[in-house]
Amino acid sequence: LPEEFVKAQPIIDTIEAAGYEAYYVGGSVRDTLLGLPIHDVDIATSAYPEEVKSLFKRTVDTGIEHGTVMILDHGTGYETTTFRTESGYQDYRRPDSVKFVRSLKEDLNRRDFTINALALKTDGSIIDYFDGLKDLKAHRIRAVGDPEKRFNEDALRMMRAVRFASQLNFVIDPETVAGIKHHGGLLTKIAVERIHVEFVKMLLGQWPAMGLDVFMETGLYQYCPDFKPYQAQFNQLRTELKSGMSNETAVWTLLAAAFNLSSKQVNQLLKDWKSANQLIEDVQVAVKAVHGIATHSVDAWLVYQTGNELLSIANEVAQKLGQSSYETAALLDQYGALQIHSKKALAITGQDLMAAGIKPGPQLGRALNFLERQVVEGQLDNQNKTLLEAAINYLNEKA
Ligand code: ATP
Ligand code: MG
């Protein structure tokens, strides 16, 4: 077993010694069986939350109403969740109530896909009630039980299906695909923030086309904010995208560029997807750089305004769209060779200009902007004396 499981074993041992059952469950089990690295180890147990808490010294109630307790006794925190069933789902999202149960099978039965419904014991044996191992071997995503019912219970699962397809290079079982086709519209009941997380994970996955195929063919995309008009562009991306994007900024920059959005439209799209302001700003800047790259008009001013990180992202996006003839390293060199990388690095300040007799006000600001641009473009050396002379000439010409 991977060391993450070995490290967590004292937790399971403690719970078992008290007479309860405990297993590793969820993504870490699936990923281990696939030979993939794992992130967080999740533990499911027959012990009720209060029983779990009584067994350990340091615990945090991270989601105690859902049965989740974080155990801190062994270094990194481990999330332990009591076996539970869910019922209700009146609003196609959260269950109305969760009920704690003592049976592992019932707990696994509420999970979304068979590959996510496996349990692992500390001796390495696997408990597989729903043919998850068979699906894992077949590289298949299949809902636990009746897909129609499962998507009706929780519509987010449809987005989870396409993101796992993209992350794992798995196909989605035809009946599960049919369920998505029939229930796509329920996605509008789900909080945009949660759809956002799954959508981005899909495009960060190594095989985005695997997810996008089903996302498009089932019509699921239509029920995501603002995506409906872009069927053709998405279908194009599906064939062009041979690998995943490297981060979230790249994901949205790709869409903005592929959809040919104006700056205002980018803002609207990202607002509708409940994105953070920083992300919106970054995407605006990166999109501008993509245009510069695509039209082969990258100059010093553009690389300066874009900055290192967004420059790499913009070129990644332009390359994915087949619109770049630049090497990323060359663009970064161009950036690195600039005399300054921020206005603060100018060898002159507003104070200096005032000391030389220039009056404070908009003129002074304009003079500094002029100097900034001239230095970035290499027309002026970044030296105090040179810049002072240039500022005075600039203002005299204006006068
Ligand atoms: P990742 O590697 O991305 O974390 P994961 O499979 O661990 O993948 P999580 O969102 O961390 O996904 O959820 C942990 C487990 O909880 C899943 O493997 C699945 O068994 C169950 N699960 C999560 N979300 C749902 C859901 N919406 N419906 C049913 N079961 C779910
Ligand atoms: Mg997980």
TrEMBL record:
Binding site for ATP: G27, R30, R111, D154, R157, R160, R163
SUPFAM superfamilies named in the record: Nucleotidyltransferase, Poly A polymerase C-terminal region-like
Reactions accelerated catalytically: a tRNA precursor + 2 CTP + ATP = a tRNA with a 3' CCA end + 3 diphosphate; a tRNA with a 3' CCA end + 2 CTP + ATP = a tRNA with a 3' CCACCA end + 3 diphosphate
Keyword Magnesium attached: yes
Transmembrane segments: none
Family: Belongs to the tRNA nucleotidyltransferase/poly(A) polymerase family. Bacterial CCA-adding enzyme type 3 subfamily.
Name of the protein in question: CCA-adding enzyme
Organism: Secundilactobacillus pentosiphilus
